């Protein structure tokens, strides 16, 4: 079992999270991740730094910890050739350390780049082509073009390529996307709070040939329960409501948290007041099929969390 931290990037300016990246590595976490959002899940005091600027800086500020994007959609906001070129460049500079997480996107981040928000099926079809393009760019030894249903371009040459084979972490929250993850990805990312995640996501992924790591992500924090619940109620509680995946306005997302109860928040997310709370939660996720858990850290006292993790949590797993 591995334990990683997703710094998220939504509460503070990006420089703050660079400092935290060093502390995450020093504590001994197995991975570090950063969200890729044009807009945050909430409006008041929110932040949405450009992930690809931050990722390079974080790789430079740290020494060896794997760092990934959690997750990027190579569909509309980014052309897959741009992502292929960006990831190859990072791997050339920091060999073997970058992790590419991909997903079919959220309306709040993609809507400025499309006339109408496409169905999941259309986005999934587009993702199949995008991954084909990315992998071809990484591996081709000659000019290549593409003539697909969603992407068409004349031949280009991949002047920058990874130093080694790069794995793709494919995000899925239901059986259809889990099947795509098995077919087109190397590893699976899902959300720990998905109802029946083992039967709806993990099992379809395995049944359709997925043999990579299963990564569970959850918003979570370490500290006073009531204070953390208050923080989540004003921010990430919007992610509890499935209909918000089709919402484009962070003001509406934040307003929707009024429909979420404190009990909903406590059931959906990790709110830990002791090391044992975290260790038990990790054990539960392992029993549901996780190989690697990642906490999107909303702690007020992050430094204390990382100290406790280094001393008591990480040695136990």
Helix content: 40-55%
**Total strand segments:** 11
Task: Give the overall form.
Answer: globular
CATH-assigned homologous superfamily: Luciferase-like domain
What would you note in describing this structure?
This protein is of the alpha/beta class and 317 residues long. The chain has one domain: Alpha-Beta Barrel (TIM Barrel), CATH 3.20.20. Helix content is 42%, strand content 18%. The protein has helices at 14-27, 51-61, 80-93, 107-110, 120-139, 175-184, 197-207, 225-233, 250-255, 262-268, 275-287, 302-316; strands at 2-6, 31-34, 67-72, 98-102, 144-147, 152-156, 168-171, 187-191, 214-222, 270-272, 292-297. An 8-stranded parallel barrel has the order 1-2-3-4-7-8-9-11, surrounded by 7 helices. The protein has a two-stranded antiparallel sheet with strand order 5-6. The longest helix is centred in the middle third of the chain and has 20 residues, at 120-139. It is globular and about 55 Å long. The termini are close together. The mean pLDDT is 97.
């Amino acid at each position: 079992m591995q334990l990683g931290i997703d710094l998220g990037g939504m509460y503070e300016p990006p420089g703050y999270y660079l400092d935290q990246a060093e502390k995450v590595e020093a504590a001994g976490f197995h991975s570090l991740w950063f969200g890729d959002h044009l807009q945050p899940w909430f409006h008041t005091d929110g932040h949405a730094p450009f992930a690809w600027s931050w990722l390079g800086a974080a790789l430079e500020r740290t020494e060896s910890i794997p760092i990934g994007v959690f997750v990027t959609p190579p569909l509309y906001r980014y052309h897959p050739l741009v992502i292929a070129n960006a990831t190859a460049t990072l791997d050339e500079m920091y060999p073997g350390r970058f992790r590419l997480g991909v997903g079919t996107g959220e309306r709040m981040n993609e809507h400025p780049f499309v006339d109408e928000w496409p169905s999941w099926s259309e986005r999934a079809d587009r993702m199949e082509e995008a991954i084909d393009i990315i992998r071809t760019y990484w591996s081709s030894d000659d000019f290549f073009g593409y003539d697909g249903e969603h992407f068409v371009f004349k031949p280009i040459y991949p002047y920058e390529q990874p130093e080694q084979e790069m794995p793709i972490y494919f995000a899925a929250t239901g059986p259809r996307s889990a099947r795509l993850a098995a077919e087109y990805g190397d590893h699976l990312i899902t959300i720990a709070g998905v109802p029946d995640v083992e039967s709806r996501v993990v099992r379809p992924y395995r049944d359709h040939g997925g043999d990579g790591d299963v990564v569970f992500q959850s918003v979570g924090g370490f500290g006073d329960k009531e204070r953390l619940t208050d923080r989540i109620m004003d921010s990430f509680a919007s992610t509890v409501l499935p209909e918000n995946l089709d919402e484009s306005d962070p003001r509406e997302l934040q307003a929707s948290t009024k429909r979420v109860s404190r009990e909903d928040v406590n059931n959906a997310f990790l709110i830990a007041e002791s090391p044992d709370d975290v260790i038990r939660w990790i054990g539960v996720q392992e029993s549901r099929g996780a190989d690697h858990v990642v906490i999107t850290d909303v702690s007020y006292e992050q430094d204390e969390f990382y100290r406790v993790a280094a001393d008591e949590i990480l040695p136990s797993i």
